[in-house]
Amino acid sequence: MSMTNDERKLAELGYKQELDRSWSGFSNFAISFSIISILAGCFTTFGQAWNNGGPIAISIGWPLISLFILIIGFCMSELVSAYPTSGGIYWWASKMGGAKAGFYTGWLNLLGLFGCVASVAYGCATFFDLSFSSFSKGWAEGYSLRRVFVMFLVILIIIAALNIGSGHFMATLNNISVWWHVAGAAFIVGALIILPENHMSVYDMFSMRVNNSAGLAGGETSGTAFWFYVLPLGFLLTQYTITGFDACAHMSEETKGAEHAAAKGLWQAIFYSAIGGWILLLSFLYAVQDADAVTAGGGGVAVIFAQALSAKWAGLVLLIASFGQLFCCTSALTSASRMMFAFSRDGAVPGSKMWSKVDKNKVPKNAVIACAVVALAITLPALVEVNIGSADAPIVVPTAFYAVVSITVIGLYLAFLIPIYQRWRMGDAFKPGSWTLGNKYKWMAPIAVVEIVIICFYFILPTTPMGWPSNEGFDIKFVNYAPILVGTSLLVLWLWWHASVKKWFKGPKTTV
Fold this sequence. Notes:
transport, transmembrane helix, transmembrane transporter activity
């Protein structure tokens, strides 16, 4: 039987075709577009930006940070074109930097993908809960972390069941997701422009500052601490929303014409999401009726919708976003399972034989289930109630959710950093694929590396003064546990590498 160009390229990289290559270039673009999901991140982490900077963190911060992320995406597009494998980032690092670089990259990528599944599914549960509360006053009494957590568990079961179906079914689902996001976002923007009686002025949208961080920088909206500590924390909105685009690489073994299609799909998913997300976020700001009330309500979008729209309209907007988030976490689980499959195929995950198995539908079912279980485990701290308000005006926030968001950003972007740096170091010795940056890598790669280092530093910092051990009001429940989980994971990996892994792990294994 003659080999296709895709199968030949994969064989050159050392693998036989095991997964079902039925995805089109549009489907490949669609999975990253779905995981980026402006109906997910723009809704679930809006409060992070409002509380840490206010409107300027959104109106100005979004396009600024998006530009840096697009540069990172261009660097990765060149890499996926050269090495279109399911292992994606891990495989690139191994090829250019050796087994040790590949080992750390793979685990950071996997940790970030676990966090992505967990955070999006938890956000999805929260927004379905808000939707049902808007439509029915009898749905539930107040906000409940336990009720949301149960819904989160149900969502994990649903998306795992969807992923266990055929790979072709997932491709179709991602295609539908793109149009849901486009039409849904357009509908929401229209509703927020037309229906509210009043609107925030454009001047305020691009100039208003808020510090609702429970005391960081003394609660001030000016000064060094505000500009260089509080405001950058608000950029988590953009950095978290526009991530997960490595899915184009993870699905490259299932994509036709992957050498070009996956590279193109990756940067286009970032570009179109950045534009659509900015328009959507500006419509949120434009609909604000009472900025002080939004701040008092914790900065969440539900407060804005309750101000600007009737209960039914607000519920409909939230429901549209909730289904968008369901598409998003379904795609995130697809990406995570393919990474776990590829990494296990090379023997780097305990129980590798189990996770690298594919079923009769050519789907790594065991890896799908494992990823869902890990996502559940790392979100258990979300059951701990954290009140950043007062006894008279309580504001219950899922601090653990923001920690999982930070884990996602840190894990994924550190994994991106390693192969980007390795490609930069290789210089002209790097052999590009059909999609290449040419000499532009010489300035793009260092910018990408520096941006990733800076954001990873910021997102391990406490988001409230009570999270600093030196603070009188310190309490463990306020701690951003992202650095604890990431740091502990890196320590375990370091010990494991030196005690055992370096003796037997030689990087990607060939199956051809």
